[in-house]
Amino acid sequence: MVCNGSVTASQEPLAQPLGKVVGGTTAKVMAAHLDLHTVGDLLHHYPRRYAERGELTGLADLPLDEHVTVVAEIADARAHTFNRGRGARLEVTLTDGRGRLQLVFFGHRAVHHHEKVLLPGRRGMFAGKVSRFNRVLQLSHPAYELLDEESGDEAVAEFAGRPLPLYPACKQLESWRIAKSVAVVLDSLAATGWAGLADPLPVALRDGRGLLPLSEAFEKAHRPRGRAEIAQARSRLKWDEAFVLQVALARRRRVAAQQPAVPRRPAPGGLLEAFDAGLPFTLTDGQRRVSEEIFEDLARDHPMHRLLQGEVGSGKTLVALRAMLAVTDSGGQSALLAPTEVLAQQHHRSITEMLGGLAEGGMLGGAERGTRVALLTGSMGAQARRRALLEAVTGEAGVVIGTHALIEDVVRFHDLGFVVVDEQHRFGVEQRDALRGKGERPPHLLVMTATPIPRTVAMTVFGDLETSVLDQLPEGRSPIASHLVPARDKPHFLDRAWQRVREEVAAGHQAYVVCPRIGDPATGEAADEPAGKSDPEGEERRPPLAVRDVAEQLSGGPLAGLRVEVLHGRLAPEAKDDVMRRFTAGEVDVLVATTVIEVGVNVPNATVMVIMDADRFGVSQLHQLRGRVGRGSAPGLCLLVSEAPEGGQARARLEAVAATTDGFELSRIDLEQRREGDVLGEAQSGGRSSLRMLAVIDDEELIAEARAEATALVDADPELAGAPELRAALDSLLDADREEFLEKG
Fold it and tell me: Mean of the pLDDT values across residues 436-452?
């Protein structure tokens, strides 16, 4: 750590172990269940929200199976006995004026104790895990702290006079106990005058934007005297997160800009010109614009790092192919990484067909300036695999397409200059980096997606990814209508869905039916994990629907007489190829499949898709899946079948998918629901976040301002010699693993 005479890590009060301040037992619980280890960890564990006296928690929308803290009023309390008096149960009903929540305590001793204090009209904080019994939301044996005259004058004054912080908590440590520990920490630091506290924001930035000192921000975030103080604290603490992270990214961009890369420019009279001359259609304005952006990056002497976001069917593959041909013209090779064998094979077929004679370099009848397009997947035979490896290492193949097999150590390239990652949400940073490492110098990188994962959206907002957007569909592509089919509430809607499938087939078209699981023929049970997380809403849920079961039911029921086939990942490669070949040829009316068809499958005659248990899939998957229809001149139709209850998060997610075909908008919805993941770490798909106060979508403007400030600072002082406190904060944010991860980006 660079300190330059400033406070060292051992002197920094935020680095103190919690056990020294709040006590060993509490510190152990915080470490084990909340991942809080230091004073700084606890002070950055901000309240989830704040309650006022008289303000009650909305009880109707509490999430099932999550630990919550609610502020509510007791409406009713009744004791019951059962088993001829041997058992006892106390049922306490809480209300917020509209919704209701039931507390349940079992045992004579518990009933006797709680019914004396849990009296109608009293208010309190109640904490526990939300469950549902007989359609009633319930907390079983919750912890609670009452907040009225029985709590004593001090508690009354505290609750009446200040907003009450409600913290992310757990079964072992309720919100109010966390608040008491925070108070102990704040009092301890205040007693020393916050001696040694390093403030990461430069004084000029802090004063210029009217931001609070860090110590005052902590005090007002955890013990505010009013809503105005909360707003002041949040503004300051958001700047901490945005600015420190932007400094980290600015330094990364500076290093990346200094990395050497071979400029790749198309040659006059080369492959790219020949390919463009043979196109049977005109490029869209969007395809031309995005191609020029990519060509400009490829011509530079440092690596491109660009995201290509485009609607399903907008022509991303064509744009990527033109860039790959430009690299081939320059003497380099390109690798196209696809997440599944089906997609890799589809890319190989379509690119080979688009190139025609240009893909037959060195072969009889091939174009004079042609190249080869090699395919490398895990299930290839030994002879085909050896040929692909040889074409890659000798440079005969200017384009090498493959799955994870491309990453294996045995794969070598003659001159890898460009890496294209298709559907980047299906790959981790480690996998992308392994392929990029196969070039003598860092190759240029293009990642493509229709719906970026939350982390990608976050990195785009933070300015770490240059972004190109294809928002224009080529001529001849038809719109896709999407509708929610609430199978539990309106079963006749599902009957109508199967009628629509029959109507489309009768009109000469084809259909997909997608299920979350394959199903085990030996046991009749769903054997695979579902494709997406299910939402814990409603009653206990049946297992996800399985391909084999649904295909059998449809063939003998609503789709009887139609040619129904199944496709899933456990089929042998030859069987998968055979099914797809016959479906493409129109010999199959309805394909019942898993998400193996999620990307890359291109059958223009398929016009309708029915997604069963749609709430069990993620937003990105749903958007990708429906992109398989509407690929020809006939309009596409996507029906999202779900038993998710009305008003829940899963139902809201499906309604959002049905309402828009804008992939970036759907990604933002996904980001709002799942958060952005660890922007600097490996948790790419949501969950744990390195951002505690900052909301990527809501705070875009602040993030942009922080980027400008950070870039100016790093340009003037790359080593942060004049900002030791900031450097210390950066060292804390970027542990060794995260710094390595960030370098791979």
Answer: 79
Are 641 and 612 in contact, with CB atoms under 8 Å apart? Answer: yes
Cα separation, 239 vs 241, in Å, equals: 5
Torsion of CA 270, 274, 276, 281, to 10 degrees: 180
pLDDT digits 0-9 by tens, 52-63: 755 677 787 777
Residue written as token pair 């707003």: 231
CATH 3.40.50.300 fits 480-660, yes or no: yes
Amino acid identity at 620: S
C-alpha distances in Å from residue 453, one per residue of 86, 145, 253, 458: 55, 40, 21, 9
Q: What's the rounded Cα separation, in Å, for the pair 720 and 732?
A: 15
DSSP, residue by residue, 389-443: HHHHHHS-EEEEEESGGGGSTT---SSEEEEEEESGGGS-HHHHHHHHTTSSSPP
* CB-based burial label for 472 (10 Å; 0-12, 13-18, 19+): middle
3-state SS string over 61-89? Answer: CCCCCCEEEEEEEEEEEEEEEECCCCEEE
Would you say 291 and 322 are in contact if contact means Cβ atoms under 8 Å apart? yes
For residue 508, the SS3 value is coil
707-726: pLDDT as tens digits = 889 999 999 999 888 888 88
CATH number for 53-162: choose from 2.40.50.140, 3.40.250.10, 1.20.1070.10, 3.90.226.10.
Answer: 2.40.50.140
pTM for this predicted structure: 0.63
Q: What is the DSSP string of 78-147?
A: EEEEETTTTEEEEEEEEESSS-EEEEEEESHHHHHHHHTT--TT-EEEEEEEEEEETTEEEEES-EEEE-
Measure the CA–CA gap between 621 and 453, rounded to whole angstroms: 10
To which H or E segment does residue 640 belong?
Answer: strand 636-642
Rounded to an integer, what distance in angstroms lies between the CA atom of residue 507 and that of residue 529? 36
> Are 265 and 330 a contacting pair, CB within 8 Å?
yes
Q: For the chain, what is the mean pLDDT?
A: 81
